[in-house]
Amino acid sequence: MNVDWTPEQTAEFYRRRRARNLALGIVLGVLVVLFFGISIVKMVP
Amino acid sequence: MSGAAVPVPEGLIVAAPEGVSFADWRDYLALLKPRVMSLVVFSAACALLTAPGHVQPFIGCVAILCVAIGAGASGALNQWYEADIDALMKRTANRPLPAGRVAPEEALAFGVALAVGSVAVMGLAVNWLAAGILAGSILFYSVVYTVWLKRRTPQNIVIGGAAGAFPPLIGWAAVTGDVTALPWLMFAIIFLWTPPHFWSLALFMEADYAKAGVPMLPVVAGETATRRQILLYTLVLVPVTILPWALGLTGWVYGSVAVATGAIFIARAVAVYRNTATVAAEMGPEKRLFKYSLLHLFLVFAALVADHWIVA
User: Fold this and answer.
1) Domain range list for chain B
2) Which chain A residues in 19-38 lie under 8 Å from chain B, judged by CB atoms?
3) ipTM over 0.90
4) N or C: lower Cβ tally within 10 Å for chain A?
5) Residue A41 touches chain B, beta carbons under 8 Å
6) Do residues B90 and B63 lie in contact, with contact meaning Cβ atoms separated by under 8 Å?
């Protein structure tokens, strides 16, 4: 990335981006479980 | 809420180039206004647990999740629109948008996506009446309160309070598919509770609101008029709180809690009415009423649930 950051700022940027990606992954996992659960509940008479 | 509690070392966060985000995941959580969300979830859950009939437990949890996400979406859209005045107030200056950690277009997209997603899932998984009320509450808070009322009239939180009063209707509709007298009374309780709650806060935060140019009642009409309005709204709120019991919709458990907590509410509102302080440091009664109003709403709604499960 072509930006004028100090090494500390660059490290902080990568740390935050990693944490955001992890959080997004967890949210997507929860959505999978949610839609699976809704499908099962709706299918059971 | 007081903004993101993300520790930011001095000089570490800099303006990122376009398309590069310096946001922490907690900044997105802060956009959802978690404290407001908790109250919304609580009131919706109480209605869901009080409503007659049966809802499949997983579907009940989905309904509450949708209410929470919908409330979060409203919070994000509110913060997107109000970033300019949030930047002027000490209480809100560290929120993700005024602090520059989240870009405005990111916050808007986040809010719209959550709003559409929560309404769609509510409709598909629960029922479309609950989804319709959820959509109405999001639009009411985002458009009617945030865009239309807040900067224009000192009555902003009176009408805007209706937005926070929708969740019991949603919780009830999720179970029964309709809305009857008791959820409307729960709506009325939150609607009438909102002005004393927020005006007591506005009294001791008046300087902040004045600085931001928000026409809250103490800023426009003064402390004396605000204290009188707090007392008047309280004197209407308490009888309405007792109404579910008086009409035979609930039992003695709810009735006794409503009477006892209502009496304390009136006593605290009278203390506020008698106070003549003009500086925040001397506004003890206002701070006590603000804190007590939260406890009052919690106890009244918890009593509704307890009454339903104990008496019924």
Assistant:
1) 21-178, 180-312
2) 19-20, 22-23, 34, 37-38
3) no
4) C
5) yes
6) no
